[in-house]
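Database export, one record per block. Field names are fixed; values are copied verbatim from the stored entry.
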Amino acid sequence: MRVVCLAGDGIGPEVMEQAVRALRELPLSLELEELPFGGSGIRETGDPLPPDTLAACRTADAVLLAAVGSPEFERTVVRPEQGLLRLRQELGIFANLRPVRTEEVDVLIVRELSAGLYYGQKGRRPDGTAFDTCEYHPDQIDRIARRAFELAGQRRRAVTVADKYGVLETSALWREVVDAVSSGYPDIALDYMLVDNAAMQLVRDPGRFDVLLTENTFGDILSDVAAVATGGVGLAASAGLSETGPGIFEPIHGSAPDIAGRGIANPAAMIRSAALMLGLGLGQASEARLLDDAVDAALEQATTADRGGSATTGEFGDAVVAFLQSQPVRAA
């Protein structure tokens, strides 16, 4: 199984190092290839998604991504984030799954990832006006809705759609399409909630949700709200899935340039993303659970600065590795 590792920018290389350490402890035949991406891609080739990196990603079984973004490129025409958007398009990534779990909460946010504001027409007019266009085709909504209902069928059989119905025409289209899709899943409960109320409920009562389905921009915001409300973005992983090609697995936190190089970043979300990759991308469910268990154990033993402790990034990784090494040896 071949995995392309894209460490990216800021704390990315630091947390990726710990994820790679953990993966190498598992009894699996994994080929891990680390390639430039984001800021490092710009520095090496002038492109945040160098051609060799893209070619490797296309033929990989999965892509493990840390983070992109650097103050160095904030005012430049070519920026690291452009590489991420292009990579998602090139691999046909359309579904972003963001699990939010604690002892009391188990929510799965399903975010549409291929359309909306981030991909619509944008620009500036001669009078100084700026515009960003939010567009959705019914087919784009249909396929993400079907994925959400299928996932709900494996969980507690409930889907909530967060939108801005009554204000946005795209939200009206979402309701039309999702209603039609839901008729094929009569055993799945469906309800709708305005996105501002959904944000409030994620803070006040996240346990009320099972699968929370939403469009691209709303999903980006709601998943961060949910992560902070249930432990912080340092713990939250995500999976970006396509219909046929490799998926992209990444933590939801950014590159955190303010703490880069200090060895204090929490690698839990990065390692959990590797666990998602094992389960959803490589079909290794038991190893995915083992890696998740290792993160749980490390969270109890090595508390990093974001959670009020003093453990370093490497010490957290040490705790993960120690747990994995303590488990019974199994054949690859």
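Remark 1: The longest helix spans residues 285-301.
Remark 2: The CA atoms of residues 111 and 176 lie 18 Å apart.
End of record.
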